[in-house]
Write a structure and sequence with these properties.
The protein has helices spanning 15-21, 63-67, 134-137, 187-190, and strands spanning 2-8, 30-33, 39-42, 60-62, 76-79, 84-90, 100-103, 105-107, 112-114, 118-120, 126-127, 144-145, 149-154, 161-168, 173-178, 181-185, 195-198. By secondary structure, the chain is mainly β.
Length: 199
């Protein structure tokens, strides 16, 4: 994966100072090649307010819109205690198995919050060709993935529970496992869960 990073000047600086800083080599975009074990997918911020019927709306987002982070052109701002950076990511190679970690939990100074957004994902034929850099697309004959496992977190961040959906390759049936319980599950029900990790 290629990671492009650009340091940003402090937003409160006058425009002239910002322009001068952007000329320094410290503020120029840098590219680093990196290997990865999994891809972290950022969810959009969950709504703060209830709808007119006083019920919380559970937002939904398509998998491909949060995968756009890896298209090589989408920039995202990352903040540290002292500095801000713009980063963009581009895939240069696809592994035999791909792991997505959907970033549901955020921690601030006081507590951990969970984002309940449902990710709409296809169970089969997720094609990642468009996220590869152009020069390596031709080298990858297989760019589609099928879901084989889905880990779900239910409940509050501090006291929730986990369950897993697993595809039995021999029969093509999906099963849900939680502790020692194993039950059949329809593939359509898997897509309605608060997926946390997907293989």
């Amino acid at each position: 994966m290629r990671i492009f990073t650009k340091k940003l000047p402090h937003p409160d600086l006058p425009a002239e100072e910002k322009a001068q800083l952007l000329q320094n080599s410290e503020y120029q975009e840098r590219m680093v090649e990196s290997t990865f074990l999994y891809l972290t997918l950022d969810l959009p911020t969950a709504p703060l307010y209830k709808d007119e019927k006083e019920q919380l709306i559970i937002p939904q987002v398509p998998l491909f819109s949060i995968l756009a982070k890896f298209n090589g052109s989408t920039e995202k701002e990352y903040k540290t205690y002292k500095e801000n950076f713009l980063k963009r990511f581009q895939l240069t190679r696809l592994p035999p198995y791909l792991i997505f970690c959907i970033k549901r939990f955020t921690k601030n100074n006081f507590f951990v919050e969970k984002n309940p957004t449902i990710v709409n994902f296809p169970i089969t034929n997720v094609d990642l060709r468009e996220y590869l850099s152009e020069e390596v697309q031709a080298a990858h004959s297989h760019t589609t993935y099928d879901l084989i496992a889905n880990i779900v977190h239910d409940g509050k961040p501090s006291e929730g529970s986990y369950r897993i959906h697993v595809l039995h390759h021999g029969t093509g049936k999906w099963y849900e496992l939680q502790d020692l319980q194993v039950t059949d599950i329809l593939p359509q029900m898997i897509t309605l869960s608060e997926a946390y990790i997907q293989v």
